[in-house]
Amino acid sequence: MLPARRLAAGKLGRWAMRSLSTAAKQAPIAMPSLGQTPKTAEGARELYDKWAQSYDETLRSWDYPAPAQAAQLLNLHLVPGGTSGPVLDAGCGTGLSGEALHAQGFTRLVGIDVSEASLKLCKTKGIYEQLEICDLDCSAGPLQFEDNSFSGVVSVGVFSYVHNFERLFKELCRITAPGGVVVFTHRHPLWGEDVDGVRSAAAALEANTEAPRWVQLLVSEPQDYMPCNPDPAESSKKINYIVHRVL
Ligand SMILES: C[S@@+](CC[C@H](N)C(=O)[O-])C[C@H]1O[C@@H](n2cnc3c(N)ncnc32)[C@H](O)[C@@H]1O
């Protein structure tokens, strides 16, 4: 039997295939600047401001499965009735992750992002009750939310631009109500190799005896990220899905 916090690759694979089979198929669109962008909040702001208008079409052409899979994981791990509080979409971009959350029944959504153009586009979809500019590296101090504001937090495709995980994870624990669930994706080698102390920062919160505190529920096997990106350097990238419950 597999350890509780790891999901069998086969099980996750079938889950991935279900999600891919419903994605719209179109010719993969090239996006050469993706791999050249500095992995910082400033780099992200510049890239995603320029990309906002065509981001959804591009990602759909790459069969991007992560938003749907992260939303399914939140649904799987939240206790029944846990969907009533708001869910924070941290790094919501143009709202693909919000659309996936909505499809899973999460209708109270708050989105934050560094890209103003992405947030503007997101607003036109009408699925978030609140959208705000925010740097997840907490460069301006603590996140702008009260303690225990959310039932869940989802962050999809964002953490390769973030570096201060010690501060961010404490903040995510603070703003998530006890029993709430935090789901994020991270690039496979960055998580596995503990780059920027991401894994250590997550583990430190498990070792705490009082808040901020969480317990790890799942680290998935590496999964496809953007499998139909026409650039082989990008299509070969893998991500882990990581889930914690706030205590
Ligand atoms: C690959 S997109 C993912 C967007 C959305 N979650 C999705 O799955 O389609 C990455 C998003 O992270 C945002 N981002 C990157 N660094 C950030 C930071 N430090 N703080 C907040 N948002 C950030 C970008 O602006 C962009 O919208």
TrEMBL record:
InterPro entries according to UniProt: Methyltransf_11 (IPR013216), SAM-dependent_MTases_sf (IPR029063)
Source species, domain of life: Eukaryota
SUPFAM superfamilies linked: S-adenosyl-L-methionine-dependent methyltransferases (SSF53335)
Methyltransferase type domain boundaries: 88-184
One Gene Ontology term of the molecular function aspect: S-adenosylmethionine-dependent methyltransferase activity
A Pfam family annotated for this UniProt entry: Methyltransf_11
UniProt-recorded name of the protein: Methyltransferase type 11 domain-containing protein
Organism encoding this protein: Polarella glacialis (Dinoflagellate)
Taxonomy of the source species: Eukaryota, Sar, Alveolata, Dinophyceae, Suessiales
